Amino acid sequence: LLGIYGSELNMPVYVVGGFVRDLLLSRKNFDIDIVVEGDGLKYAKYAARNLRTTFVEHSEFHTGSLFFKDGFRIDIATARTEYYEKPADLPKVELSTIKKDLYRRDFSINAMAIKLNSEEFGVLIDFFGCKHDLDRGIIKILYNLSFIEDPTRILRAIRFEKRFNFKIENRTLELLKDAVNNGYIEKVTGMRLREEFEKILNERNITESIDEMGKFGILDHLFLYSQYKKSKLETFEKVLKFYQWIKKNVPKYSYKVKLFHLFLYSYLVYEEEQAALYSFERYGLPKKFLNNLEKLKEAILQLNKLNTYSSYSDFYKIVENFDNELLIVISGFIKEEIKDKYKSYLLKINDFTLEIDGKDIMSLGIKGKLVGVILNEIKMKKLDGKIQNEREYLMNFVR
Ligand code: CTP
Asked: Of all helices (H) and strands (E), which one includes residue 57?
């Protein structure tokens, strides 16, 4: 239908980019990007009317999106040559043909199109030997300034390489490293970099990607004033493993947890304050991030003094009121010896409740701070299995 609408309006219509790549690789992809030669907005409105879908326009980019009831979405753009006023800016858009549109894209594997108009339906458009690169498993930029104009492509190259188990072509790799070493990562906004970095964290080969980003100096430029070390990756691997355990066994503690935060807590905890401050400001981290790093350091110190015989209340006293993210990151730093005990502590505290509360204590004529002290005392004792009946204990305590 999308092709038929194009023909009705006398406009060539193509599906492009990642969808075509994945189709040729027989991989599922539900993100459809359409490019129209002509007035993309007119086409999009026409298609939306005929398909009775919701249409949202992004007029400055000559693009729009169709939203279907089941959450399915199609993005429509006008064929364009993006040119960049200065490196790392968002592109200005100039209307153009499909060839130029494809040439401006990140890598050859993402620069193919399939025509949709009924006359030529299904014809693969490949101007730059893209299919050949896809078949050989090569990540290759199409023009020398690609990484300079859009340094987020540095991260994208790593992501696609690891996702498909492809290889970054030699010259592309040289230009990638040049862009990193010449400080082009620093020219992009933190938000765009964060988005790309988060996409890497959502892929399956996270640790391989991180290791490669470390070796190429990408991490040192993303998180200025810090330094990549293999041991940091090993710590993060432990954190990831523990996060999986949490999701399976105590899902409550995975609520609102962000992988990006888990990574940065574990990556920056022993770095100079300057490193934490830089990433905090650049990547819009939560207000409590810096304070949490301090809490984390102290908790690691205290927890590593415990042993297998320590009681649940010992754990409780150290990590009481900690955010879910901190509870998870801690796992990367504690001795193996106490890890099982830490896990059973989390299981225990997960469904731990007290039958009595402050009011019960006050009803016995006790006032002020003492109420909290007594309540806490009862809580610790119950956690450690030293109390069976809280009310009885309370009565004896008062007597
Ligand atoms: N693109 C680009 N430069 C970028 C981002 C995107 O040239 N920095 C182009 C590529 O042609 C890409 C298309 O825009 O295929 C769509 O981008 P996106 O949806 O981010 O990527 P996909 O290739 O669809 O990857 P994924 O499978 O991860 O969604």
From this structure: strand 54-58
Q: Which two tokens stand for residue 259?
A: 């992988």
Residue 138 is predicted with a pLDDT of 98
Q: Within the chain, what is the greatest distance between any pair of CA atoms?
A: 93
Q: What are phi and psi of 92, to 5 degrees?
A: -85, 155
Report which of 60, 23, 67, 21 is spatially closest to residue 44, judged by C-alpha positions. Answer: 67
Which residue lies with its CA nearest to atom 27 of ligand 1? 18
DSSP for 382-395 reads: HHTT--S-HHHHHH
Distances (CA, A) of 13 to 79, 92, 131: 9, 22, 20
Query: What is the amino acid identity at position 293?
Result: L
Sign of the alpha-carbon torsion through 300, 301, 304, 305: negative
Alpha carbon distance 382, 258 (integer Å): 33
SS3 of residue 123 by DSSP? coil
Ligand 1 site residues, Cβ closer than 6 angstroms: 17-18, 31, 33, 105-106, 110, 150, 152-153, 156
Distance CA 263, CA 237 (A): 10
**Residue 73 main-chain phi, psi, to 5 deg:** -140, 140
CA of 20 to the centre of ligand 1 (A): 11
Residue 150 CA, closest ligand 1 atom number: 8
The whole-number pLDDT of residue 164 equals 97
Model confidence at 352, in pLDDT bands (50, 70, 90)?
confident
DSSP per position, 147-167: HHH-THHHHHHHHHHHHHT-E
Average pLDDT over the chain reads 92
Candidate of 29, 109, 110 to mutate for ligand 1, largest count of ligand atoms within 8 Å of Cβ: 110
**In this structure, are residues 100 and 81 in contact, taking their beta carbons and an 8 Å threshold?**
yes
Can you spell out the DSSP letters for 69-90? TTS-EEEEEE-EEEE-SSTTSP
**Beta-bridge partner residues of 139:** 168
| Residue of the CA atom closest to atom 7 of ligand 1 | 105
In percent, how much of the chain has pLDDT > 90? 71
Question: Stretch 221-243: mean pLDDT, rounded?
Answer: 97
Atom of ligand 1 nearest to the CA of 104: 7
Closest protein CA for atom 25 of ligand 1: 18
Q: Report the separation in Å between the CA atom of 117 and the middle of ligand 1, taken as the mean of its atom positions.
A: 23
Ligand 1: which atom is nearest the Cα of residue 33?
16
